[in-house]
Design a protein that fits this description.
Oligomer: single chain
Order of helices and strands: HHEEEHEHEEHEEEHEHHHHHHEEEHE
Largest sheet: 6 strands, mixed
Structural class: alpha+beta
Helix content: 25-40%
Distance between the termini: 60 Å
Radius of gyration: 21 Å
Length: about 425
């Protein structure tokens, strides 16, 4: 009975975050009475890097980062067409400081960042410094037609507490005067308008609870232990860039990073209905993973690495000929290390059921957006389609099961420039 109660509670909390709004917050608070750790009065005590999350969240037994279970993406636009005013900056500064004071920067409190798009910086006469690699979003494969997210800014909120996400949103949008015992100085909506809101979740049990949506078979095949809809673990420490390596090293935005965020609709009927376990392993990791039985269950046995070896990465074409398919991970890995062997991308993806459709929000951090584009090109596997069994979306990793609906590029400035920055701040 207790297990069922826990299941129902998880279902409710995820649904509340997906729904959003004051009514969802009120219902959420009715079943949640644990205290939330408070934040700090002095923002100078917080990390200069907004993207420094890893030492503020949980890790598993292998040192893999466990992202906060509940997340929200608020896409916002500055009111008017002109550059921001001093009044606008005061509003945004006060709104963000309210969150800093109200919530400990941790998975038990609230972790968040604010990032700005190329469209935002086009409001100014000056351009970004030459060293900032922040192009406008574009199509990254010949078979996608995404909508481009060109809103001015993106607020990314993350917490293990559903009520914290909803309460923080209410503070930002002026629907609450006090949050976690802290007075709201100003809602961000006094200067900006929320253009879109998207919700996400990640962690064992959560996808299994929410698999009754379009894109997933009615047989409910998602394992309880899986943190993601596709049934396997991801984000292994050995295959993720460090926060240091994705940090911009010089110039006025030193200490910041760039952020690409895509939304991928998932169509998993064939993934679970036509592919057996070994075939899913082959298409997600590599054919060698399947042939040698390297993956057990959802991949808990892999530890801190996906198990990719240089041989698997270098022999993609040979695997295509021998096995008639290639793996998603082995393709992408061809472009995901620099000349010194460092991983280039730090991926922080979460699932979504917005609109009752299975989807994936895919934030990726890197020093420059070009790094993400390089890895996506390698993932497309277009160079392998001359092999008889490989088509652009068939037997070509997981491309048959994911469809890009949105793409957006953003600059995550260091904390000192997080409030409506100029392109060339002092």
């Amino acid at each position: 009975m207790e297990a069922r109660s826990d299941f129902d509670r998880r279902q409710f909390l995820k649904a509340a975050v997906a729904t959003g709004g004051v009514a969802a917050l009120s219902a959420c608070l009715d079943i949640t009475d644990e205290p939330v750790p408070t934040g700090v009065d002095d923002p100078a005590t917080l990390p200069e890097r907004q993207h420094a999350w890893n030492d503020r969240v949980r890790t598993d037994d292998h040192g893999n980062v466990a992202l906060p279970r509940h997340q929200s993406l608020l896409y916002v636009n500055l009111d008017g067409d002109e550059p921001p005013t001093d009044t606008d900056r005061t509003v945004v500064r006060d709104a963000l400081r309210t969150l800093d004071r109200a919530y400990e920067r941790s998975n038990d409190g609230l972790i968040y960042s604010i990032a700005y798009s190329p469209a935002y910086f086009e409001r100014f006469d000056a351009s970004l410094p030459d060293g900032i690699d922040l192009p406008s979003p574009r199509r990254l494969s010949p078979f996608e037609e995404p909508e481009f997210d060109t809103q001015d800014a993106l607020l990314h909120l993350a917490s293990d507490r559903a009520d914290v996400i909803l309460e923080a949103e209410a503070a930002l949008t002026g629907e609450r005067d006090e949050v976690n015992g802290v007075t709201v100085d100003a809602p961000i909506t006094d200067a900006m308008t929320v253009a879109d809101r998207r919700s996400g979740f990640v962690g064992p049990g959560l996808p299994a609870d929410r698999q009754d949506v379009a894109g997933i078979p009615d047989s409910k095949p998602v394992p309880e232990a899986s943190p993601l809809f596709m049934g396997f673990e991801a984000g292994f420490r050995g295959n993720q860039a460090t926060e240091d390596h994705v940090t911009i090293e010089s110039g006025p935005f030193a200490g910041g990073t760039t952020k690409h965020v895509s939304r991928l609709r998932q169509r998993l009927e064939d993934w679970y209905g036509e592919q057996n376990f070994e075939q899913r392993v082959a298409e997600l990791f590599s054919p060698v993973h399947a042939e040698d039985g390297l993956v057990e269950g959802v991949g808990e046995n892999l530890g801190s690495s996906s198990g990719l070896t240089p041989r698997m990465i270098e022999n993609v074409r040979e695997h295509a000929r021998e096995h008639g398919r290639v793996g998603h991970a082995q393709k992408a890995a061809r472009a995901n290390r620099d000349e010194d062997g460092n991983v280039r991308l730090l991926r922080r993806h979460v699932e979504s059921t917005d609109g009752d459709v299975a989807a994936l929000h895919f934030p990726s951090l890197q020093r420059g957006i070009t790094a993400f584009e390089d890895v996506r090109e390698a993932m497309n596997g277009a160079d392998l389609t001359d092999e008889p069994a490989i088509r652009q979306r068939v037997n070509n990793g997981i491309l048959e099961y994911i469809f890009t609906t949105h793409r957006g590029n953003f600059l995550v400035p260091p904390r000192r420039h997080r409030v409506l920055p100029r392109p060339r701040p002092a």
